[in-house]
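Archive maintenance. Older records in this collection stored only the sequence; we are now back-filling the structure field for every entry so that each record is complete. The fields below show one back-filled record exactly as it appears after the update. Entries are processed alphabetically, and beta-glucosidase is next in the queue.

ARCHIVE ENTRY
Title: beta-glucosidase
Organism field: Enterococcus cecorum
Length field: 716
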Amino acid sequence: MKRDELIKLVKNMTLYEKVSQLLQITADFYSEYAEERTGPLSDMGITEDDLYGVGSVLGISGASESIRIQKEYLKKNRLKIPLLFMADIIHGYRTIFPIPLALGCTWDTNSIEEMARISAKEAAVSGIHVTFSPMVDLVHDPRWGRVMESTGEDPLLNSVLSKAFVRGYQSDNLKDNIYSIASCVKHFAAYGAVSGGRDYNSVDLSELKLREQYLSGYSSAIQEGAKLVMTSFNTVNGIPSTGNKWLLKKILREDLKFNGTIISDWGAVKELIPHGVAASKRDAAKLAINAGVDIEMMTTCYKENLEKLIKEGEIEESLVDESVLRILELKNDLGLFENPNRGANEDLEKNIVLSKQHRDIAKKISQQSIVLLKNESVLPLSSKELVAVIGPGAHSLDILGAWSWKGKSNEAVSLVEGMKKISDRLLITKFNQSYFELSDEELNESLSLAKKADKVVLALGEESWMSGEAASRSNICLPPAQVELFNKIKEVNPNIIVTLYNGRPLDLNSIGEAKGIVEAWFPGTEGGNALAEILFGIYNPSGKLSMSFPDSVGQVPIYYNCENTGRPYEVNPQEKYVSKYLDISNYAKYPFGYGLSYCKFTYSNLRINNPVLKSNEKVIVSVDVCNESSRCGVEIVQLYIRDKVGEVVRPIKELKDFKKIYLEKWENRTVSFELNEQMLRYVHSDMTYSSDEGEFVVMVGSNSQDYLEIEFLLDK
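Back-filled structure field:
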């Protein structure tokens, strides 16, 4: 349909029909069994008739079910406006990929795009139109459970990966490509800065910091064409996002140029009441519609109050008209008026979902996301070595993560399964050990196996419920039972390689004496195969951390690009009167950008072709990277900048570019980066965006703490 036809359609709608389009409810309201609808309908005060005016549905899955619901809906909808089906496709539909924090560790836009494209294809043939992804909340505090949904702590990395997510989901032609789905970027805004790392908590952030660090991920997704934005649960400048007119209309609509659909998070409109900015559902509806929220998810403040507010002259009907038009435009962008069932197809669903091709790609991406944190000459394993495989993660199929909505753990591959495909020299625990308890029998068996083995693979970590939404933790250490197991095994065999399944950076000091540590995150359906091939050196690890691991939970929030102080730690860490702790360093245990390989990469000869950068020109920064080993491998070369003097205090370093390179054994290669004036711009105190003349430091290396550096001058 053309835009003028959509406008005409809005004019033909009754006020009741328009308000109904602004409501989103869950799939259980449309159960084919009438008795199953009774509870949800009465709980929300919705009638059977109301169901056939609702604009969108959350959590539908399966082609046959979506086709049935759409058909039933269109029979009873006066104007034949199709339903939108939305869902949380966060890192895979049925073929589950690594959690987003792990995907960030790939530093690979092609892999992220491929993951999103496969997720979209599986979701689309299963009847879904919209995914609530990517989550681009910048994160600094690993206590917050939702760090698992983010791609990390850096604005640039988050930005380039957010674009890749959107490209993969939406493709080049959303309307005609039935294997694509619309992307909803979330959570707007700054949800990752919640106080104390506690979910749903408040955010206290300056506008400068908001613009400088937190907006870039959303902005990039919007530039790439994301069709929806979801509001966040937190406050910004003391006002909850869902009722924040400045945030949604000034920042999102005007500054970021977003013209798509804004949807609340689950229940967030009604939650304006406990936030204390609305006294009633009527107040909440008025605040949210004035702020520009188009779709209310799973509460009925709009349904119960918008018509009355309009009739009593408290809000303009044009606000509702604008929201309805945006919703209809989204449906039109998806081609639903011409094809209400779009990509839903039971035959394609059987052939595409969880196909071997998709599983193979999931394994490849999982391998790219796994980070080798420590290796004291114990990895890779040899198939000739006798290896004990013990610990709660050995047989675990709980490796999909908390947001694997349609993923099935019984379709996942365990670490033991993966290792058995490679070696028959394994001593495998017979127990499915608990992450939290260790029986005497389990301990005795583990010690017996460890004594016989050349090396021990000790599989530790978190269960999936321990991270994700509503899963904040004050203590991010491994559970005591796992520490006890580690310490007991160390006494009989010090050659321990710890593998970790988890959804956040952890405090790993309790296993600091491990000879090897492999961070596998929640690696998805093919996780066991991917991890096993890394352990045996079939795949050479290349992942680099997208979020810092603290040396102690007392350091958090911890991140590499902190601002300088008047008494900087770096000048003299031994001096007392500098910004530091008395009992620990300021540095992360494993910093942003860190990750080892089975190769030894060395950096040398950092140079710049011109020490003075002029506006409208560029300079070339080059470094030699050598693979000083007898095997090939991948290295992620990272470039950071420091602005030595700014109008406001600047970070001690900022990632500005990176390149993922493949090096043959013993190969030496020159890696070059282009620098221009635009890369040196930042947000000033008056909220303008520009660069300052003066001295800069450019740093190039393997991570945010190990690098070479050289200075240059910006002369505008």
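Update note: The first helix runs from residue 3 to 12. The mean pLDDT is 97.
Entry marked complete.
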